[in-house]
From TrEMBL:
This is Putative mRNA 3-end processing factor. GO terms for molecular function: RNA endonuclease activity. InterPro entries: MBL (IPR050698), RibonucZ/Hydroxyglut_hydro (IPR036866), Xnuc_lig_assoc (IPR026360). Residues 332-341 have a biased composition (Polar residues). Residues 322-341 are annotated as: Disordered.
Amino acid sequence: MKTPLLQFTSNGIYCKKAQVYLDPWKPVDHAIISHGHADHSRYGHKKYITHHRNVPIILHRLGEINVTGKEWGETFIINNVTFSLHPAGHIIGSSQIRVEHKGEVWVFTGDYKTENDGISTPYEPIKCDTFITECTFGLPAFKWTPQAEVLENINNWWAENKAEGKTSILFGYSLGKAQRLLKYLNTDIGEIYTHGAIENMTEVLRPLVDFPKTTLITKETKKEQLLGNIVLAPPSAHGSTWIRKMVPYVTASASGWMTFRGARRRRAIDKGFVLSDHCDWTGLLQSIEATGAEKVICTHGYADIFSKYLREQGYDARTEATQYGEEETETALASKSTAAV
């Protein structure tokens, strides 16, 4: 039986012909990294290849590593296998990884979204024979409202809280979601304060994107300074002593999971805004169709349900287990921060 061009192993997704792994979850010699989130970009590999916009991100998170940056569409050949990186639209510097050998083409998406968020290089469909797709929101219930409408609602929420003399605390992952929110917050309403994990990552990305001014919350910050203003914080800050000192405040979370009211209740969040850095159901289906792929491998998320649906539509679809899932190790990131009220 012919060995697949890419295999799912205990270390990660492996290209045996090139002896290279894609987003491996255990230490390996050679790794091609799709993006900077902690579940896809891990410490311990001997050599890293990624998009050049992702280089400062993973250096910030992983420290001194041996990393090479590539441009979109730039081909590089390893043991007669041709690789290239293409925009995934998930976060800044996020890539799909195209792998070709003897005319056979596979595409590994990492994580991706089809809506242009205005700060990430927009997603581009890549023709292939086999498409490896995430299924984080692979249910028909997930259907995203256009970003502009969601962001307008967030700014209106902030203005209402200011009128009531309360601090607005908005939760989002420190890499990706926080910067997407920050880019479109209306500074005519007030000032933007940040948790250390978000401030530090945003500073890494400022050379790439024109973000509004932010103020880091420190031990010297008085809660009176925060009243009427907005605070961007990672989810791990919720319920901490850091946040309890900001009373009176109102909380909100920006996430695809806010589709379900139960998720907001379980997290004890006052307001939920449905804003995701992943595809919704329609985005997943349209992306797969655009690739022209006959074979689809479904990974993390609602993989079983989604692959079953694809088979019903005539695709050769199956699932594979990975160690992807939570985008951030937010607790670890927060512990590196010196932020405190």
